[in-house]
Design goal:
heterodimer; A: 378 residues; alpha/beta; CBS-domain; 6-stranded mixed sheet; B: 214 residues; mainly alpha; MetI-like fold; 83% helix; 0% strand
């Protein structure tokens, strides 16, 4: 379902909170509303489900005006998550999630099945969490429960008002990752309010930038980064704009499918290993089990040290070191930080069964940064 | 004192029954009316009257019970009815105050989330606001019960009967036994009622509200 804002206006007395905004939130996409406080982003969100009445203009759901809808029925058909989450403290996790289905008079069997499914989706064990109360779970878990509750009646639309705002930075990253993963499955039309540009870039398919109630720019995220409309948008993006672009680019489009690897427990000696590395002109090689799984890596330097000491008959497997890997849908930013933390300029790319797919190198990533900085016109 | 109690057990029970009636009529009426006033005063659009109500009932809690009973006597005369009316007014104060302040204390985020999920005003009131503020409402009801049972002894002064009668007669006859017996029964009644209400409170209030934040 797409949502269209047509010439949307909100005035509080003489104060114009939303100033003739026109934009369309696309079906199945996550659209961000961002801007400094008082820019009207939360007001727009609350107008979408009728919590704030509009002064002028219209909101259309697949062409149908919000004025022709029953506000209560509309809200029950839209998932809603706010910053404080608003879990009801006197209700168990189960009852919290059951709220909208019960308002819609689902039968209890169907509700129970749906709740099991949702807790599973947000990665909380149903048996453990179902009967707990919100005060008994952590902030991050509460957030997941809030998302599950919003998804309970399988709404086509999700409105989210700074849902991760009150979470500490480390857990916020994790929640964002798992939320992206969830959105990949559920493909809802999401309108997401934030004031954190990193979050916007990471999560948004499209970003709407607002200032003093006016829409400044509304574009695909990469377009916003590469072609900021004006100085305001540039400042919002910050001087590390090119770096932010790395949050958007996926490993998938930037890694090398050619790599060199040794078989694990292949009965090879240090001598064999050195010969192969030299003939391939490599300084290291990954190690794969016979099922193609990544088992670690072997550094040429280590083998040479053995060679100097005359230990060439030693088993190659003794030199296998564990290695961190990244998955194809990881971002280039994550790849870079892995390189920095491990001190390696190449990071193996694996699928979710740990099968080795290829390698991503620092110089490939750096080329992308240069390309982005170049198009920015700074 | 124990001799007095044993010898006059029937009389004591009769006065106890009267006392319980004085308490029950006034307290139950105050519970219904007080909670209703508290709800109405905290509905959207009534914020101003809600604040005024809190200020008035907050201050009114300082008025001594004997003054309220005296006023009831002036306007309504003697007997059980004016006494019940006075006790009703007196216990109305903490119940209204706690209901209103409890409902005002419900975090706005909860109401916003509930409204955003498509609850009607009535559903928000009964499913969210009242259950969440049950603790202050219940404690208002409990303290109203205790003070009403205490104040009802004074109601005997205007001919309402009850355990206060024993105390007043004891005072006139200078019989310490009687005064103590009346006081003991009153105190026991207050403690029992408070204990029962504590039990009800435990059953009514969601364990989710009792758990400490972690």
């Amino acid at each position: 379902m797409s949502i269209e804002c047509v010439d949307l206006v909100k005035k509080y007395g003489e104060v114009v909170a939303v100033d003739h905004v026109n934009l369309t939130f696309d079906e199945h996409k996550l659209s961000i509303l961002i801007g400094p406080s008082g820019c009207g982003k939360t007001t727009i969100l609350r107008m979408l489900n009728g919590l704030v009445p509009r002064t002028g203009g219209d909101i259309r759901y697949d062409g149908v005006s919000i004025g022709d809808m029953d506000p209560i029925a509309l809200r029950r058909s839209i998932g809603y998550v706010i910053q404080e989450i608003g879990l009801f403290p006197h209700m168990s996790v189960y009852d919290n999630i059951a709220t909208v289905p019960r308002l819609l008079k689902w039968n209890e069997t169907r509700i129970r099945e749906r709740i099991m499914e949702l807790l599973d989706l947000v990665n909380l064990e149903p048996d453990r969490f179902m009967n707990q109360y919100p005060s008994q779970v952590s902030g991050g878990q509460r957030q997941r429960i809030g998302v599950a509750r919003a998804l309970a009646a399988d709404p086509k639309i999700l409105l989210m008002d700074e849902p991760f705002g009150a979470i500490d930075p480390i857990n916020r990253e994790r929640l964002q990752d798992s939320f992206l993963e969830i959105q990949r499955h559920i493909q809802k039309t999401i309108v997401f309010v934030t004031h954190d540009i990193r979050e916007a870039v990471k999560l948004g398919d499209k970003i709407a930038i607002l200032d003093e109630g006016k829409l400044i720019q509304y574009d695909e995220t990469l377009t916003v980064i590469n072609q900021p409309e004006n100085e305001f948008v540039e400042n919002l993006l910050g001087s590390d704009r090119a770096l932010k672009g790395l949050e958007l680019l996926r490993v998938n489009d930037n890694y090398d499918r050619n790599f060199f690897s040794f078989p694990a427990e292949g009965g090879l000696t240090v001598k064999d290993g050195l010969e192969r590395l030299r003939s391939e002109r490599r300084t290291f090689g990954f190690v794969q089990t016979d099922k193609r799984r990544l088992a670690g890596y072997i550094l040429g330097k280590d083998l040479e040290r053995d060679e100097k000491r005359g230990n060439t008959a030693r088993k190659l497997d003794e030199h296998v070191k564990p290695i961190e890997s990244i998955q194809p849908y990881g971002t280039l930013m994550e790849a870079i930080s892995l390189m920095v933390t491990t001190g390696l300029t190449s990071v193996p790319v694996v699928d979710d069964r740990q099968n080795l797919l290829g390698v991503i190198r620092f110089r490939d990533v750096f080329e992308r940064i240069e390309a982005m900085a170049g198009t920015g016109g700074e | 004192m124990f001799n007095y109690i044993v010898d006059n057990f029937g009389y004591l029970l009769e006065k106890l029954r009267e006392h319980v009636m004085l308490f029950l009529f006034s307290w139950v009426a105050a519970l219904v009316v007080g909670i209703l006033i508290g709800i109405v005063a905290t509905r959207k659009g009534n914020e101003r009257s809600g604040k005024i109500l809190l200020a008035v009932t907050g201050a009114a809690q300082a008025v001594p019970s004997i003054a309220v009973i005296a006023i009831a006597f002036i306007f309504l005369g003697i007997g059980a009815t004016p006494a019940i009316f006075a006790l009703f007014i007196y216990s109305l104060v903490p119940i209204t105050f706690n209901t209103a302040s409890g409902l005002m204390g419900v975090p706005p985020a909860l109401k916003q989330a509930a409204r955003g999920m498509g609850m009607t005003d009535m559903q928000i009131l009964f499913h969210i606001e009242i259950p969440v503020s049950l603790r202050p409402i219940a404690s208002g009801a409990r303290s109203a019960a205790t003070i009403t049972i205490g104040a009802a002894t004074i109601a005997s002064a205007i001919g309402a009967g009850g355990l206060g009668e024993i105390i007043f007669i004891g005072l006139q006859l200078m019989k310490t036994d009687m005064i103590l017996a009346g006081a003991l029964f009153t105190a026991a009644l207050a403690v029992t009622v408070d204990g029962l209400l504590a039990l009800v409170e435990r059953l009514l209030i969601s364990p989710g509200l009792a758990v400490e934040e972690i």
